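Kindly go through the entry underneath: sequence plus fold tokens. Please state briefly how this chain folds according to its tokens.
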Amino acid sequence: MSVKNALAEKIAGEITLSPKPGQTIRKWRKIFKISQSELAYFLDTYPSVICDYESGRRKSPGIQTVRKIVTAFLEIDAKKNSERILNRYQLFIKKDEGILDIMEYPYGIPIKKFIREIDGTLLTSPDTIDNRKYINGFTLIDAVKTISSFNSSNYIQLYGWSTERALIFTGIQYGRSPMIAIRVHPVKPAVVVYQKPDNIDSLAIELAERERIPLVTTMLSLNNLKRKLKMV
């Protein structure tokens, strides 16, 4: 299967199986950086129709409509000279060995709800939580394997389709290295989670505060954490 067909199948599957297909359409439209008007023009319809689908005011689109929407995403993307989503997908097919799991949610999860669902404890001030941001996915990372080999290529793989995601690190001793790596890179996550850390250095918390990124710990076992992440 070609990369383009694999991506089309992924998007169509997410929309069709989503409990909130309108919100999933909106998520992918934003990933492709397409306006409602641009999508409506391509589909030969009105922007209000797209708005009604995304808000849930119009009933869930059928298979044929989903296929047209996905085709529109990919064909509009093909006309771009740079930053094509299809190019990014080629990067994500080969997963770095330090990435234990990566998943996109069908729609955004409020940060506070996400923290609550993983039995998280917020180490930074409540002010670091931006209520306008949502968690669109998570990446579960083996800190020992990943931090030591960070470069621009495997760093961007951590973000999947959206920077509005949780980066969750296992095997943390003091927590400095992940926050230092995040601080020097222009792309920032919505939240950073340390799973069962040995200790937390005050520098890690200070760096998270400076970057306005919620820093959270969870004492769940790895298996329980994986289960809860899939159920959020």
Remarks:
- The chain has two domains: 3-88, 95-231.
